[in-house]
Fold this sequence. Notes:
It is a single chain. The chain is 36% helix and 19% strand. The protein is α/β, with parallel strands linked by helices and 611 residues long. Strands 1, 2, 3, 4, 5, 6 and 7 form a 7-stranded mixed beta sheet that branches. The protein has a 6-stranded antiparallel beta sheet with strand order 13-10-17-8-9-14, covered by helices on one side. Helix 8 runs parallel beside helix 13. The N and C termini lie far apart (67 Å).
Amino acid sequence: MERCRCVVLLETNSPFTKEQADLLNQVVPTLTESQKAWLSGYLAAGASVATVSDLPTTVAAPQTPEQTVSKDITVLFGSQTGNCRSLASSLTDKLQAQGFQVTFSSMNDFKTNTLKKVENLLLLVSTHGEGDPPDDALTFYEFVNGKRAPKFDHLKYSVLGLGDLSYEFYCQTGKDFDARFEELGGTRLTARVDCDVDYDDDAAEWMDKVLASLKEATSVAAPVTISDAAGQTDIASEYSRTNPFQAEVLENLNLNGRGSDRETRHLEISLEGSNLRYSPGDSLGIFPQNHPQLVEDVLAALKWDANELVTIKKAGEVPLKEALQRHVEVTVLTKPLLENLASLSSNAELQELVKPEQAEKMREYIHGRDLLDVIEDYKLQAITAKELIPVLRKLPARLYSISSSPEAYPEEVHLTVRKVDYESHGRQRYGVCSSHTADHLEEDGTLPVYIQHNPNFKLPANPDTPMIMIGPGTGVAPFRAFLGEKEESGDNSRTWLFFGDRHFSTDFLYQVEWQRWLKEGVLTNMDVAFSRDSAEKVYVQHRMLERGKELYEWLQDGAVVYVCGDEKQMAHDVHNALATILETEGGLSKEAAEAYLQEMQQEKRYQRDVY
């Protein structure tokens, strides 16, 4: 009778699914009183472990009388596009599964005055631009490298750096943190690992080493894991960066008018059947193909058989032409690649180029050249396919800011992609993904895609917050998504868009939509700058300075500023314009204006998606 009452209770009056109830009905009657007492204590202690927020949250693993209390582990991440945050979250899950107590936080949210109390620190950080920390790591980076940083004689740490080998200051932020922690007295748990754009395997290996080192240093019993499926409402997608979804292209249009010297594609892509979910501010990753003409030219220069089989990691044996077109990078040169090619070749000039004292000459050579240039310039025809393919890095995905609202376009994702096509060193060059989508992708074709979530570029939590959006060229993409989302939600907060391009008549991207949103009140203000329509070039930062008084008033009203687009020049010019407005309209000193903008970044009122 007792068992029957248990069944009825679980199936009719509880939040459990039928499958969960059946499992509990099988297990509960068999438990001893001590087992029931232990389980109830476990559930009470584990209730707070269900989610990990962006804010610093200490999560305690359940304890048993037999278990030794573990040391705290602090996991900090600095992430511009979300990759380090995702890896840090995965690492936190692994640590909790082993019974560790974990504090998980972005560097921006972490209280630096508690750093001296941290005993075990795992730090994951990307490098942005020319060796710079990501925006959400800047304050922490400056603190650690400043005079107020504490001594870390008690600290054990390990660093994972993310970067791009094609940049000169590869993983520089991670290197800086690693060196600084050592300088302040810290001891490495494991050696720093630097990851290129294809980071999955290296990051997983680093996590395994970190876990092994921590388990060796502390006595931690693995806890019982009980999943909480009852509260889940969304079905997780099986598709990801390592398993992209083959998405159908519904629309592929040129947004530029006749006579424009630019070509900007508007892509509409179906996500139907993928269960992939995104929100405005996120990006779409695309695994592209190399330009077919470049592939043919490389094969011809090396006199290789296009059908020769070569081994590609995770793909197995594939024909050489397919390897060059779909799997390996052939358009970007890096220092490690040239060094590997020099070791495979007997060419004295190439071997001279890679010497340390020739660093500046190598830097100049790498800029604007590709694999075909090296083959022809240094006569590398003797290198075999089986020698060359393994030293070429994996063809990385390209990320594009999503230009659609999922509420406005369910089961779709839209992109705004400008075609890169130029001449350099006597030969035509093509952007890998932009040329693929513009010239070699038909409607009804497919693209391998995944969603890259970006928690650092999001609509305000309070829908009444004013928004200032600055996005010249294709940088306007996420703001189309923002305004589309606001239109669907029906909120009437103030919005202000600054847009710029070359010519009003041919390059005013999404002009009709902006005008409709202005008419309907979804968009409050819009200022435009078309640089080639006047004798003196005018850019978005000039329009901002012209409207400085009103912009300052919006900032005083709590407006969030968003910047999207070119990092090398535009983002710096916009930043300087904001600082100038704070100085001229707010009466701040140069130093105070910079401090104001830094505080805005910490408060997530100054968000950038720059590249």
